[in-house]
Design goal:
Number of strands: 12
CATH architecture of the largest domain: 3-Layer(aba) Sandwich
CATH class of the largest domain: Alpha Beta
Oligomer: single chain
Strand order of the largest sheet: 8-7-6-9-10-11-12
Order of helices and strands: EHEHEHEHEHHEHEHEHEHEHEEHH
CATH superfamily of the largest domain: NAD(P)-binding Rossmann-like Domain
CATH topology of the largest domain: Rossmann fold
Mean pLDDT: 96
Structural class: alpha/beta
């Protein structure tokens, strides 16, 4: 007998699907093609006891209301959940969960890969070599920027904006490069001050002093366009910007100007303001590294995320408190209690 029906918007690693199958759950994947988004009509017509959504799926009030009265929970396959209208979900008595904690180290590793790649011009050098253009070593071939101390011994400064799990992990890795670390996070001021490796700095001070600025804040109304024209102009001309947070944290149009006109030396992006579209002119620049939102994309990490999403989904199905619920107040609402009466 089926233990319920879980609708997955697009494929997730089999580690999570296997948990659902073992529990006797009926699984439907709305869009099996990973390179195609789920259509709006498919979302509105989905009939699920639990929905496993991806960060590309807009789970708004209309979708939530269309899924009533069957929908018992949404398990978001991501740490962030700005794709979901949490207020509307709570009003509908629908608990929402995410996949926190598991992707910290993989995301920090990729942030550093982006930082090193843009500083040492690794993608450009790879293309040059793979295209057969490398004919002879030259003293001026693909000159980049030092990440560790240069020949003069000056320590480079890493600026970390957003000092949550990922920001702290990125800062830890700076120790191996003998860097000084500045950190800005209005909600983590005391944690930064207690960290022996980091120095708290206001955003303006961090931007003025840092050789590398790594972005890790959540996307909120306050952080949307946190980095715009004035902030980019405040950075050093030789500095690099790495966006490993959410695309709209950066004004991408201003960034293209900054890169084209030399306000900063370069940028590395894993996320985009209007993802997957890039700002006009961004792809033509030679001082950028552009990734397709793969910050947490390791086999181990993405598989573990699938398992967490599946376990949360099973809790939603059973009317149990999900371990990673982001709107715990839903459990005390009348509409949730009616749908999940206690034995």
């Amino acid at each position: 007998m089926s233990a319920g029906r879980v609708v997955v918007t697009r494929p997730i690693p089999d580690a999570g699907l296997a948990l659902l199958r073992d529990a006797g759950v009926v699984i439907e994947i709305l869009q099996p093609d990973e390179e195609r988004a789920v259509g709006r009509e498919d979302l509105l017509s989905a009939r699920a006891d639990v929905l496993i959504s991806l960060l590309t799926d807009p789970i708004d009030r209309e979708v939530l209301q269309a899924a009533q009265p069957a929908l018992r929970g949404v398990a978001n396959y991501a740490v962030g959940y700005n794709n979901i209208d949490i207020h509307a979900a709570t009003e509908c008595g629908v608990p929402v969960s995410n996949t926190p904690g598991v992707l910290t180290e993989a995301s920090a590793d990729c942030t550093w890969a982006m930082l090193l790649g843009v500083a040492r011009r690794i993608p450009q050098a790879h293309r040059y070599t793979s295209e057969g253009r490398f004919k002879l070593w030259g003293a001026n071939l693909f000159l980049g920027s030092d990440v560790g101390p240069g020949p003069d011994g000056r320590r480079k400064v890493l600026g970390v904006v957003g000092f949550g799990r990922i920001g702290r992990a990125v800062a830890r890795r700076a120790l191996g490069f003998e860097m000084d670390v500045l950190a800005f996070d209005p909600f983590q001021r005391e944690a930064i001050k207690a960290d022996p490796q980091a120095e708290y700095a206001k955003l303006a001070d961090l931007l003025a002093r840092a050789d590398f600025v790594c972005l890790h804040p959540p996307l909120t109304d306050e952080t949307r366009h946190l980095i715009g024209e004035s902030e980019l102009r405040a950075m050093k001309r030789g500095a690099f910007l790495i966006n490993a947070a959410r695309g709209p944290v950066v004004d991408e149009t201003a960034l293209v100007r900054a890169l084209r006109e030399g306000w900063i030396a370069g940028a590395a992006l894993d996320v985009y303001e209007h993802e997957p579209q890039l700002a006009s002119g961004l792809a033509e620049l030679d001082n950028v590294v552009l990734l397709p939102h793969i910050l947490s994309a390791s086999h181990d990490t993405r598989g573990r995320m699938a398992e967490i999403a599946a376990r949360n989904a099973l809790c939603h199905l059973r009317g149990e408190r999900a371990p990673d619920v982001v709107n715990p107040e839903v459990y005390s609402t009348e509409v949730y209690s009616r749908r999940n009466p206690k034995p």
